[in-house]
Amino acid sequence: MNQQKNGKRTANRGEPPRRVQNAAGKIMNTSSQGVFRGYVPQQTGSQQLQHAVPTRQFTGSENNNGNGTRGFGTAGGSKGRPHKKGKAIRTVLITVLALALIAGAAYYGIQVSRDLAKKKLISDKVSPYDELYCPGVYVDGIHLGGMTPEQAMNSVQSQISQRSEAWKVQLVFEGQVVAEITSDMLNMTVDQNQLINVMNEAWTYGHTGSQYDRYVQMEELEQNPHYSYTAKPNGDTSELDRLMATIKSNIDIPVQDAALISFEPSRAYPFVFSHEVVGRTLDTEPILEQLYQMVSTMTSGTIELVPTTVQPEVLQAELEMHYALRASVKTPIDRHSDDNRNNNIRRCFEFISGTVLEPGETFSFNKTVGERSLENGFYPATEYINDEHVTGVGGGACQASTTLYQAAVRSGLQIISRRPHSDSVSYAEYGTDATVYWMKGGKQIDMSFKNNTEGKIYIVAEVIKDSSVRSGLSAKVSIYGESLGNVTYKLETETIETLPSIMEPVYVKDKESAAKAKDGCIVDSYRMKYVDGILTERTFLFRDTYNPKPEKIYDPSLAKD
Q: CA 253 to CA 494: how far, in whole Å?
């Protein structure tokens, strides 16, 4: 009996009172939504609330205390004393659970109220247009919002029927009417299928998808209305196409880049350019579309033809920077220089002037001018050979080479080869001259330089009239190419040593050859680079030695021999 009794009580150990279980069960079973929605207790008895009501560890068996009161045995084995503390804890936990369930139900109720309000807002905006076109929908300029499909169709058809021959559109360009378009020229018709398609498409705006989708579409229409037109080209539009093609050809101007046409050394500025041309082009497609829209809405008026401007990629001002004067040098022709010598200078320049050097290409005086011979157009004239003035073919070529050398240095070009005369010359200072020589099948002395720039080099050479010199003539060389900008070059010399003349006099038979003794010198030459007028670089070029000369005394007796 005691075992059965104990066993029965053991089975109910830890259970809360039945009335509490029932109350909790009702609350949970009715909470189908909200924070706890969907939760339904799956067990009964002590297992149902085992997570909400923690169990106590038994230290003895459950006993009847003799007063009909059930309770838990204590660790000390006391009997008959009720356990009020455990019952109070269970009551608090059950109360907390009940309050949580009530709070969840309240939160859910608020959410439901908000959802209902939102649905009502959407419904109030969308539902009135279930059978009507939505606001913001236009066909042929007619606002269909609030119209039934039948009303909308009648309005559009009525306007189509009102098109008349009085409709016209003028095309205006720069204040002048260049054409007048009539409905006959457009050959416009609207068939029933085309009209239905336009109306059906307009209906889809605000009538596609769920109520929420429609709500979003209607909100969008308020910001960006939909426009469609029934007028489309139908049939032969060749007359209009021809008219627009003619108008376009009269308005369009091909864009044209500036370009170098020719290099003409005889001109003061030796380059001839074609000037850039700003282009323009008329896009006829938008004009045609605007015409169709105007006929759809029966709107007469004008269309301003505004072509698109097309800017050239190369401007003449920019192009000229590649053909700028880098340096120009002139050397005076001595008043004792006769016509033959002057013509020899001119002949050298005829070969040189007009030369175009590609980047990296080397100029050679001898290769360009060739042999100084009668067959090559040169004349007999005085020239300086081996410390003597003698008559030879091509005298004067050295003044041409000297002038070109100085221009090359001042243009910043790389000097490849150059040699000085053995004595001073009348047209250049020590260290700035450049001699050349050509002996057929024999010795040659050349002057050469390299185009070390990124662009082409152009050379102009000529004998010019020059009132600043006694002869009235000068040899001039100008070199063109990439602009040097704020950079300039100069050719400067420095005498390192003077070589005194201590030699015995020399007697000569020609009176013209008589001369006083002359000291020699050693001279260094430099290329000076200036940026904005400030010296920034000093480049050594050559060291030249000019030997001293003895006195030359004229002896008439030598002429008799």
A: 61
Structure tokens at 31: 């909470």
Q: Which tokens in the block code for residue 230?
A: 């029934």
The full length of the chain comes to: 561
Q: Which residue has the tokens 């002896």?
A: 555
Instruction: Give yes or no: residues 214 and 236 share one domain.
Output: yes
What is the tens place of the pLDDT at every residue in 120-137?
889 999 999 999 999 999
Same domain, 285 and 324: no
User: Does the residue 518 lie in any domain?
Assistant: yes
Q: Which of 467, 485, 503 corresponds to the end of one domain? A: 485
The model carries a pTM of 0.61
Amino acid, res. 17: P
Give whole-number Cα distances, 302 to 16, 173, 232, 416, in Å. Answer: 92, 10, 19, 71
Q: How far apart are CA 89 and CA 95, in angstroms?
A: 10
User: Would you tell me the crossing angle of helices 192-204 and 149-161 to the nearest 10 degrees?
Assistant: 140
Q: Are 162 and 298 in contact (CB under 8 A)?
A: yes
Q: Are residues 414 and 352 both part of a single domain?
A: yes
DSSP string, 18-80: HHHHHHHHHHHHH--SGGGTT------GGGTTTTTSPPPPPSS--EE-SSS-EEPPPTT---S
Structural domain count of the chain: 4
- Shared domain for 164 and 121, answered yes or no, is no
- Clarify whether residues 274 and 391 are in a common domain: no
- Show the domain range for 17: 2-125
- Which two three-digit tokens encode residue 344? 């020899």
List pLDDT tens digits, range 165-198. 567 899 999 999 999 988 777 666 667 888 899 9
447 and 345 within one domain: yes
